[in-house]
Input
Amino acid sequence: MATALVKEKHNIEISRNGYLIVMYQKGLPYEPYFIAINNRGQVIIGSNKKMVVIYMVGELEVLI
Output
């Protein structure tokens, strides 16, 4: 379900270090959550967009 939300209904696209990250955001304005898929196909769910981005970009840099 999380994968389908990100792939079909993502509502945020951001770019960090040339890496495009698509996310699905939902929740109350003061308590949003974010769902993303990393470059290994694993689902990341976090309450903080910055944490999700750091995780995504950090993993990408390790693989390069």
Strands lie at 12-16, 19-28, 31-37, 43-46. The chain has a mean pLDDT of 83.
